[in-house]
Amino acid sequence: MPGLRKSFPLDLAGLTVAISAVAVIYGGFRAFYFQVGFLESFSYYSDERPFNTIVNQWIGRDPSETLVGIHAFGDYLLLNVWAQFPNPWEQPGGVNYLPPVVLLFKILGYLPYGLGLTLFLIALAVCILLPMVIASRGFPITQRLLFVTTLAVLTGPAIATLDRANNQGFLPILLFGFGIAVLKERWGWAAVCIALAACIKIYPILLILLLLALRKFSWAGVSVLLSAGVVLLTMPMTSNAGISGIPDVLEGVLDFQEKSVNQFLEYNTSLSGGLANALMFIGLDSAASWIALNAIVIIGIYALVVVPLLWIGAIPVWLRVILTLSLTTALMPITYPYALNWAIAAAAIAVWVSRQDSVQTFLSQRHSMLLALSLALLLAVLPVLIPGSAEASRAAGAASLASLATAILLPVTAFAVSRHRLRVVA
């Protein structure tokens, strides 16, 4: 099975820094031309005070208690408030979180707000950092610091996750654990990682596709049963409706994916979201609107083309792992920049593969660079707003366009690797 050369992590770090540098320069020019704050080019919301006031009114709390300047770490705030209701899934705002996550916030709610938020942010940071810290063992300390900084801490998905205080930040360590478990053929641990990840956000359940491709059918079933069991166990602890409230939970998760055209376009980093934003950007508004209303068609076509690649034995297992991780955003109608933190786990897996001394053959330089570009586009710190979108009252992200490029580049790279290996064998 071909691996990656030890130079790959440096190539990936270099590409990520280069793309980020260009993006930062663009953000500076944009801020100058349109007379807006520089950091506003990279942020979701520049002033969260109105949002903070509305959410705190639901429980009669003084809004000043949850503000950090004009910032509110909005996703933490929302869950903190929702978790205080007897049945969160009956409350305003459209609760799209699963019971295990709500239970965590019920527990954090017993702490002073500032302490709970601080502990939560620390936990997110640890889960974001750990994959690269583990994967880079064996490299010189200066290189390890470089990889941890450029491929974990100062990445677009990490910054977005911490800025929103979103529980997506718990996923990188679980996705990394899943990948290493698969590569070491520790199927029980792989199943546990899938189950835990799916309890945080539902779409990592798609990782069972790789277990099915590797003919680990029983372990795929175990993953589903474990995640369902945890949800059922925690439901009575989070809602007075008990198990009978499960339909409300599912409705909340599924309704979250049904948005208006403008809501669909906003910050959307899924495959269909990236395609719709790209079409809107070049003036094909009607085509973009059609995709926004029929995203399932795009998802279905992409799945029919890409998912079968997981069954191609000529593609190295580690590359199939990375491709499977990408499906957690590509096959969803709507995802946001922090959901791209699967790329943090993927980068760590690639670094781990590159330091395996037992590997005798390697991906070609061309294929390695395509893989590096696919990941660097997602890891780079990109402006949230693409040219003109803010002035047109449409919030869209450069990350949306980058995720579209990766959704194309990554499967193309995997297929090209398989064709190359077959030609070599022949």
| Low-confidence runs | none
Distance between the termini: 16 Å
- Main sheet specs: none
What oligomeric arrangement do these chains adopt?
single chain
- Sheet-strand content, in percent, reads under 5%
What overall geometry do the principal axes of the alpha carbons give?
globular
**Helix count from the secondary structure assignment:** 20
Helix/strand structural class: mainly alpha
Summed over residues and divided by their number, the pLDDT gives a mean of 90
Q: Give the beta-strand count.
A: 0
Percent helix range: 55-70%
Keywords:
mainly alpha, 426 residues, 20 helices
Describe this protein's structure.
The protein has 426 residues and is mainly α. The protein has one domain (8-425). It is 64% helix and 0% strand. The protein has helices at 8-33, 49-57, 74-82, 99-108, 113-135, 141-153, 156-164, 171-183, 187-200, 208-213, 217-238, 246-255, 261-265, 271-281, 285-293, 295-306, 317-330, 342-354, 365-379, 398-425. Helix 14 packs antiparallel against helix 15. The protein is globular, with a radius of gyration of 21 Å.
Task: Give a quick rundown of the structure.
The chain is mainly alpha-helical and 426 residues long. It is built from 20 helices and no strands.
Topology (SSEs and partners):
Blueprint: H1 8-33, H2 49-57, H3 74-82, H4 99-108, H5 113-135, H6 141-153, H7 156-164, H8 171-183, H9 187-200, H10 208-213, H11 217-238, H12 246-255, H13 261-265, H14 271-281, H15 285-293, H16 295-306, H17 317-330, H18 342-354, H19 365-379, H20 398-425
Helix pairs in contact: 1-6, 1-19, 2-3, 3-4, 4-11, 5-6, 5-8, 5-18, 8-9, 8-17, 8-18, 9-11, 14-15, 14-20, 15-16, 17-18, 17-20, 19-20
